[in-house]
């Protein structure tokens, strides 16, 4: 067991039994690196990250690779959700080295923490057009040992570039409405007119842009409404249990990357509530409330705070918990009910995912299906609702994805905002009460002597709150005030 066993991060604890001699981010690791004049290997990720699990399984549990890491490096593991400040710096460096970022983040640093190379996922041996991690480790160790001038030159360029990026602010003035509309107009050529969203795959929800488009009215709001509708019809939404997966790997919003994040779903609860306010279309009410119910059912701590994430993987397979075989539907339901579900959710014998499995999506709207089979729409919706509950009950017997039960202040602020707004818009006191109990949890456990802390799991973390923790909590409290007019939230 290494030094990670006593950390508050579930992600760090997942690596506690690795043969790698991991350190958490902190003075001890840097002091050791400087004393031994060893470079640092920094690995940053999060507990719901599929490729983080893959790299851990392939490399960090590999005795041979671990021995190389331990011999040549001081190894630091970072939970990017607990330490977004650390992760952001090295993500910026990764962009400079490779043109992209992501997780797991793999950085090679001087003993002072200066990056001389940063990438993301590396397989143990060369494949996918990527250098093998074992080969990379040995080469980085050699360069550090034999090329100090190269290291110093690289570090100087990276530091100069990052410093320049940080100093190039926008000045002190706020954008005018005209400037905001002009910025939104520059996005229009990137809009996917067929499926919504921007550009090709992968597609992320990008909720803030749709909120902006709704606020600007015509011609922007209809594009937001179309995207939100197609997203909710696709596999990126968990059609049975509610909640949205993190992003779509395809243009159609069909095949998701299966992790579920609190911040995505909190923001989507806001967006679908606003879409309903704008359009008065009950479809958006349905999705907003379905997302809120998922938050309360799957993600709430008994004392009120909200957990961070659900993993993408179950038993080592991505998406296993959410997928359905055609034969399973036939076995569970009568032929009429099975046929109805297959038509509605696009379930076929050949499947639309690996090994003949199906990602559920709305292939037909209830009204279309009702007309096709000769049922009244209200009768069909009631029947589908009952069948969906049976599917959910069956699915809940499966092995569940790992839940990261870390409670992050900023993300709870977003959840408070989303639930308070949904409660106000849809006249649902239960949502407002859930938002209040989340705030009570933050005040009890993470607001100490007038100062916020970043996260909680079994105990408060040592990390002070960041600007986003304060800002998003303020956002949540303002929404709670608007839902209740209780002055304590403003105070």
What does this structure look like?
There is one protein chain. This protein has 491 residues and is an alpha+beta fold. The chain contains 20 helices and 19 strands. It has helices spanning 10-14, 27-36, 50-60, 63-72, 84-98, 133-146, 148-167, 177-187, 207-216, 221-233, 262-279, 282-298, 326-332, 335-345, 366-373, 377-395, 409-425, 429-445, 467-484, 487-490, and strands at 22-24, 40-45, 74-79, 105-109, 115-119, 247-248, 256-257, 260-261, 309-310, 313-314, 317-318, 324-325, 357-358, 403-404, 407-408, 447-448, 451-452, 455-457, 459-460. It has a five-stranded mixed beta sheet with strand order 1-3-2-4-5, with helices on both faces. The protein has a three-stranded antiparallel beta sheet with strand order 8-9-14. Strands 15-18-19 form a three-stranded antiparallel beta sheet. The longest helix has 20 residues, at 148-167. The chain is globular. The mean pLDDT is 95.
Structure characteristics:
491 residues; alpha+beta; 5-stranded mixed beta sheet; globular
Q: Indicate the structural class.
A: alpha+beta
Mean pLDDT comes to: 95
Strand content: 5-15%
- The counted number of beta strands is 19
Strand order of the largest sheet: 1-3-2-4-5
Largest sheet: 5 strands, mixed
Radius of gyration: 24 Å
Percentage of residues assigned to helices: 40-55%
Task: Give the CA-based shape.
Answer: globular
Poorly predicted segments: none
First and last CA, distance: 46 Å
Count, helices: 20
């Amino acid at each position: 067991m290494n030094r990670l066993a006593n950390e508050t991060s579930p992600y760090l604890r997942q690596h506690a039994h690795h043969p790698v001699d991991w350190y958490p981010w902190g003075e001890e690791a840097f002091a050791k690196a400087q004393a031994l004049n060893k470079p640092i290997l920094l690995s940053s990720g999060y507990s719901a990250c599929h490729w983080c699990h893959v790299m851990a399984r392939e490399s960090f549990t590999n005795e041979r690779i671990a021995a190389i890491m331990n011999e040549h490096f001081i190894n630091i593991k970072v939970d990017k959700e607990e330490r977004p400040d650390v992760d952001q710096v090295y993500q910026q460096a990764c962009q400079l080295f490779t043109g992209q970022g992501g997780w797991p983040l793999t950085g090679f640093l001087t003993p002072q923490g200066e990056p001389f190379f940063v990438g993301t996922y590396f397989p143990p041996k060369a494949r996918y057009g990527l250098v093998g991690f074992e080969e990379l480790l040995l080469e980085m160790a050699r360069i550090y040992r034999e090329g100090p001038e190269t290291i110093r030159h690289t570090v100087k360029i990276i530091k100069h570039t990052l410093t320049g990026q940080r100093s190039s602010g926008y000045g002190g003035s706020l954008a005018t409405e005209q400037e905001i509309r002009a910025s939104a107009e520059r996005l229009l050529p990137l809009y996917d007119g067929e499926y919504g969203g921007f550009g090709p795959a992968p597609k992320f929800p990008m909720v803030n842009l749709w909120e902006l488009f709704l606020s600007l009215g015509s011609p922007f709001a209809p594009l937001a409404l179309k995207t939100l509708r197609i997203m909710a019809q696709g596999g990126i939404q968990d059609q049975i249990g509610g909640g949205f997966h993190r992003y779509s790997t395809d243009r159609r919003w069909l095949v998701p990357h299966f992790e579920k994040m609190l911040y995505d779903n909190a923001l989507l609860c806001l967006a679908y509530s606003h879409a309903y306010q704008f359009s008065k279309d009950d479809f958006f009410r349905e999705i907003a409330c379905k997302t809120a119910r998922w938050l309360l059912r799957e993600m709430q701590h008994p004392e009120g705070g909200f957990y961070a994430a659900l993993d993408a993987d179950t038993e080592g397979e991505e998406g296993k918990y959410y997928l359905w075989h055609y034969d399973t539907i036939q076995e569970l339901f009568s032929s009429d009910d099975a046929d109805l579900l297959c038509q509605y959710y696009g379930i076929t014998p050949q499947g639309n995912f690996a090994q003949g499995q199906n990602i559920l999506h709305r292939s037909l709207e209830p009204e279309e299906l009702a007309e096709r089979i000769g049922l009244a729409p209200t009768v069909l919706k009631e029947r589908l609702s009952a069948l969906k509950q049976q599917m959910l009950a069956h699915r809940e017997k499966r092995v569940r994805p790992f839940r990261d039960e870390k409670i992050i202040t900023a993300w709870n602020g977003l959840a408070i905002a989303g639930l308070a707004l949904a409660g106000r818009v849809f006249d649902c006191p239960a949502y407002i009460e859930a938002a209040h109990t989340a705030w009570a949890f933050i005040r009890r456990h993470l607001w100490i002597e007038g100062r916020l802390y970043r996260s909680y799991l079994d105990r408060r973390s040592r990390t002070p709150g960041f600007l986003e923790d304060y800002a998003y909590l303020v956002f949540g409290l303002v929404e709670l005030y608007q839902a209740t007019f209780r002055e304590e939230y403003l105070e």
